[in-house]
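*** Protein under study ***
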Amino acid sequence: RVGEIAFVSGHGPVEDGELVFRGKLGRDMDTETGRKAAQLVMLNLLASLKAELGELDRVERVVKLLVMVNSAPDYIEQPLVANGASDLLVEIFGEERGKHARSAVGMGALPYGISVEIEGIIAVKS
């Protein structure tokens, strides 16, 4: 944290201590599966944020996400994958606190072959 801003490092799709949703979108998995991966990544990111803040009620607003999608060269639906994370935030925090700026970019590779990595900038209450 820097003052009232939390910078949350990149998170991946971990479930029960194991990396899941490995592979490239457009080659190894479809957009809907990528969307589910992004939802899981966002839940992991929120768990880390809660560990830092104590309670997610201290989230004033989600400011920005960077959603990195492990993509086949011709895959173009990165924003639809990122919607899995973005829609979840609006569902949890509502439009006013959960809607945010976002970049959704295709990557040639991500660590350990994961399909989605997300980092975030969050405004928090003191």
Summary: The beta strands are 5-11, 14-15, 18-19, 59-70, 101-107, 116-124. The chain has two helices and six strands. Helices lie at 31-53, 78-98.
